[in-house]
Amino acid sequence: MEKKDKLYYSISEVAQMFGLNEPTLRYWEKEFDIINPRRTAKGVRFYRQEDIEAVRQIYHLVKERGLTLAGARQKLRDNRDSVERQAELAARLKAVREELQNLKNAFEEIEKKAQGNS
User: Fold this and answer.
1) How confident is the model over 15-62, as pLDDT tens digits?
2) Rounded to whole angstroms, how far apart are CA atoms 19 and 98?
3) Domains and CATH numbers, the chain
4) Which stretch of DSSP H or E encloses residue 45?
């Protein structure tokens, strides 16, 4: 979902990583104390890797598992390690699925070309 070569990401970059809008990230920041982006003197947010990981966990709970914000907060309070592992696993499975879809598309394209040459 994100590159690990940068130290800081803008709010727009993080929003794009998760397909969210910026106001949603700002709201989650107020609702969950685990998201703590650094701010410049003018208030511009810069997200670190640990903030992005927190967003990933909240995204997993709210958007993928369908929990309410209160439910997600409780789940994180009760067992954050478990949520972290589940969110990481979900992200890995999505990446595998995407790669398999790319392979399927490539094979279909090869098959079309082969049929066209027959």
Assistant:
1) 999 999 999 999 999 999 999 999 999 999 999 999 999 999 999 999
2) 16
3) 9-116 (1.10.1660.10)
4) strand 45-47
